[in-house]
């Protein structure tokens, strides 16, 4: 259920409300990082989508990948739970900031 950083064809500069990903592309229990938009989108349970900043709260490094249920920072080894953005492994001590999204059909939009 792991997913990695994503720079696919749906990665284009987004305005608020612009589709960012297909809901069917976000694995249940995992997530994907959309680097150009700086967002992590997860699906903790089937049909429930959440979004967080993809920037580590320790020193601002971009998260590099999702492995299982955590999004990982390559700079200092911090890991964040994709279900709620909380810190799973330090040295980061603050959770990821939530981002607003909406699901319309099979598309997830940044709001």
UniProtKB/TrEMBL annotation:
Entry coiled-coil feature ranges: none
CDD domains: Rieske (cd03467)
SUPFAM superfamilies the record matches: ISP domain (SSF50022)
Gene3D superfamilies: Rieske [2Fe-2S] iron-sulphur domain
UniProtKB keywords: 2Fe-2S, Disulfide bond, Iron, Iron-sulfur, Metal-binding
InterPro entries: Rieske_2Fe-2S, Rieske_2Fe-2S_sf, Rieske_Fe-S_prot_C
Composition skew (Basic and acidic residues), residue ranges: 1-14
Pfam family for this entry, one: Rieske
Stretch list, region Disordered: 1-23
PROSITE patterns (UniProt xref): RIESKE (PS51296)
Domain Rieske, residue spans: 18-110
Superkingdom of source: Bacteria
Protein name as it appears in the record: Rieske (2Fe-2S) protein
Source organism (scientific name): Streptomyces caledonius
Lineage: Bacteria, Bacillati, Actinomycetota, Actinomycetes, Kitasatosporales
């Amino acid at each position: 259920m792991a997913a990695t950083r994503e720079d696919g064809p749906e990665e284009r500069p987004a305005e608020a409300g612009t589709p960012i990903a297909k809901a069917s592309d976000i694995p249940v229990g995992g997530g994907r990082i959309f680097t150009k938009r700086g967002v992590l989108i997860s699906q903790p349970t089937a049909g429930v989508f959440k979004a967080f900043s993809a920037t580590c709260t320790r020193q601002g490094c971009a998260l590099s990948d999702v492995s299982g249920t955590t999004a990982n920072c390559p700079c200092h080894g911090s890991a964040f739970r994709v279900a709620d953005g909380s810190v799973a492994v330090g040295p980061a001590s603050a959770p990821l900031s939530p981002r607003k999204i909406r699901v319309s059909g099979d598309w997830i939009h940044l709001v």
